[in-house]
Amino acid sequence: MGYRTILLERRDHIGIITFNRPEKLNAINLEMKNEIHDALLEFEGDRQVRVVIITGAGRAFSSGFDVGSPSSEFVDFVSLKEEKKLFELDKPTIAAIHGYVLGDGLQQALLCDMIVASDNAILGFIGPRIGGLCYGAFTILPAVVGRRKASELLLTCERISANEAYRIGLVNKVVTLERLMPTAIEMAEKIIKFSPLSIKYTKRGLRTALLNEAHKRALKEGWKEILASNSLGKV
Fold this sequence. Notes:
Elements: E1 6-11, E2 14-19, H1 30-44, E3 51-56, H2 74-77, H3 81-88, E4 93-97, E5 100-102, H4 103-110, E6 114-118, E7 122-124, H5 140-145, H6 147-156, E8 160-161, H7 162-167, E9 173-175, H8 180-191, H9 196-206, H10 213-228
Parallel strand pairs: 2-3, 3-4, 4-6, 5-7, 6-9
Antiparallel strand pairs: 1-2, 7-8
Helix pairs in contact: 1-3
């Protein structure tokens, strides 16, 4: 399958998805979201791929939602299709992040099992800043950093450094930019030494906050109200 906004690579038992809109700092539009979903399906069906790494081309992992996207894409954008697939994937996922890691980009990383950050990474949620919702973080972020810190990050849209993200437990490791992908690959290589079946069910056991239908319906209602008020991007 050909992709326009992402790159796919296979290294032995490791599948790599690279966000590939560097001229836009890998801002995520509907086409990219659909391609991420399709790439995850492709790796899910490939028995040779045992671990998936997600990273970004150029100067940033992702600057978040592409605010230049047509307004007609907004409703489809919040379908949670690729977020749900990323979270439900039975194969371990590692985000290798650098530069700007904002909004929907940070949500993509948060849905991975582990995060390796370069020391130049800047992380932050931006939903309220543009009149939107940080929908992908509601369930997982409080479990990772605690409800109080999650509230602070989501409501103030404060940006934090990689070292601060490590201090609060949001990322697993902080390394130099040159060591980012080698470190992610080393982590993946540790995992692929073990039984795929054991890894699969260990990951399922860790998945305690699966996005449910009621959660998705509530978020869609929130987005409908925001779109109806024509407030998105006007705050």
